[in-house]
Write a structure and sequence with these properties.
The complex is a heterodimer of chains A (about 110) and B (about 110).
Chain A lengths: L2 E3 L4 E5 L4 E3 L2 E3 L5 E8 L6 E7 L7 E2 L2 E6 L4 E6 L8 E9 L6 E2 L3 E6 L1
Parallel strand pairs in A: 2-12
Antiparallel strand pairs in A: 1-4, 3-9, 5-6, 5-10, 7-8, 8-9, 10-11, 10-12
Chain B lengths: L3 E4 L2 E4 L5 E7 L5 E8 L3 E10 L2 E4 L6 E7 L2 E6 L8 E8 L8 E2 L3 E5 L1
Parallel strand pairs in B: 2-11
Antiparallel strand pairs in B: 1-3, 3-8, 4-5, 4-9, 5-6, 7-8, 9-10, 9-11
The chains are: A mainly beta (about 110), B mainly beta (about 110).
């Protein structure tokens, strides 16, 4: 079974600084997709960024970018110029191609210090 | 935003009673999922559906059943609620598998006393 590991239960960052959240996954598949979701205190799950495993180029969405290392099965999220609104729980998720549901990590709670 | 509505949003129930949570979508997505979120466990899959009347178990399915008689509705039933089922329950949908993101409802906080 595929597993997703987020080794940092909690992280903190100063406002305007950069922080990196770690995620590793275990799979024997060669074709799959990876996602980062944000869950603010409102509890709503919001997609932050996605990465296709067949793409070597790292995905970027404004201040959010990933470092995807396929051989190492690592998918870290970098948040630049951190803002107070970035404070949330962040979940890494894995999805193989086909119909299999997303598998989530346990999450990393990010605090942003003013 | 995808139109996914969960009801109720909050519920307190007694041990041993049956409980049904409803997920309704207006997006005509094929796949629907029920996850539970607990501190230290992230989101864990309970059951999912890949079409009307087509469902399958997830990793924490014991004590839960589901039904999907229409594309838009996916029901989660706790046959006899236990305190260990106190959790936040999320419904999610996807238009297809693979690279498509999952869209989530607002969550239901269930407390079993």
């Amino acid at each position: 079974a595929q597993t997703v590991t987020q080794s940092q239960p909690e992280m903190s960052v100063q406002e305007a600084e950069t922080v990196t959240l770690s995620c590793t996954y275990d799979t024997s598949e060669s074709d799959y997709y990876l996602f980062w979701y944000k869950q603010p205190p409102s509890r709503q799950m919001i997609l932050v960024i996605r990465q296709e495993a067949y793409k070597q180029q790292n995905a970027t969405e404004n201040r959010f970018s990933v470092n995807f290392q396929k051989a190492a099965k690592s998918f870290s999220l970098k948040i630049s110029d951190s803002q107070l609104g970035d404070a949330a729980m962040y979940f890494c998720a894995y999805s193989p191609s086909g119909n299999t549901p997303l598998v989530f990590g346990k999450g990393t709670r990010l605090s942003v210090i003013a | 935003d995808a139109g996914i509505t969960q009801s109720p949003r909050h519920k307190v129930t007694e041990t041993g009673t049956p409980v049904t949570l409803r997920c309704h979508q207006t997006e005509n997505h094929r796949y629907m999922y029920w996850y539970r979120q607990d501190p230290g466990h992230g989101l864990r899959l309970i059951h999912y559906s890949y079409g009307v009347k087509d469902t399958d178990k997830g990793e924490v399915s014991d004590g839960y059943s589901v039904s999907r008689s229409k594309t838009e509705d996916f029901l989660l039933t706790l046959e006899s609620a236990t305190s260990s089922q106190t959790s936040v329950y999320f419904c999610a949908t996807r238009p297809s598998g693979g690279n498509t993101e999952a869209f989530f409802g607002q969550g239901t906080r269930l407390t079993v006393v």
